[in-house]
Amino acid sequence: GYEKALAEFGLSDRQEVLFLGFGEEEDEKRLKTRLKKHDRPTGIIADADFRACFATKIAKKMGMTLPKDLAVIGCNNTPWCDLSDIPLTSVCLKEKELAQTAIKSVLADKFIPDEIIIEPELIVRESCGSKLREKESLKGKKNKITATQMIEVLS
């Protein structure tokens, strides 16, 4: 889904992964180096909300305005989203629903399917500058859309 969405928006050649987790000083250096480049990203999708908050902190230190200069999306929809200077857009993985489904499957003495799909949701807040957030019907709400629409939200 992710690569297909990139292709639909003509962004296949812009897919890039920047690994963090080497310590705050090293991570800041790596992120600043990437954000200083001429072809810097216009959006960051982090694997965790706290890393997305870190990216917003570094971008602001560099004089960037979020989401105008850089859109940021986190993952897990944790309290970090509301504690950030700019409310953070985040993918809600529905861990509670995943756990409940797993427990029910184990406790039920019947056939368990090979695959159970629990669709994640994108909780749209200010950090992504989404066109969806600007719609009058969505203002002031924690808006939910499917994670497969994430690329559209960043555009």
Give a short synopsis of this structure.
The protein has helices at residues 2-8, 24-36, 49-61, 80-83, 95-107, 131-134, 150-154, and strands at 43-45, 71-75, 89-92, 121-124, 143-146.
Account of the 3D structure:
With 155 residues, the chain is of the alpha/beta class. Residues 132-155 have low confidence and may be disordered. It has helices at residues 2-8, 24-36, 49-61, 80-83, 95-107, 131-134, 150-154; strands at residues 43-45, 71-75, 89-92, 121-124, 143-146. Helix 2 (24-36) packs across helix 3. It is elongated, with a radius of gyration of 17 Å.
As a whole number of angstroms, the C-alpha radius of gyration is 17 Å
Q: Give the biggest beta sheet.
A: 5 strands, mixed
Order of helices and strands: HHEHEHEHEHEH
Total number of helices: 7
Beta-strand proportion? 5-15%
| Anisotropy-based shape | elongated
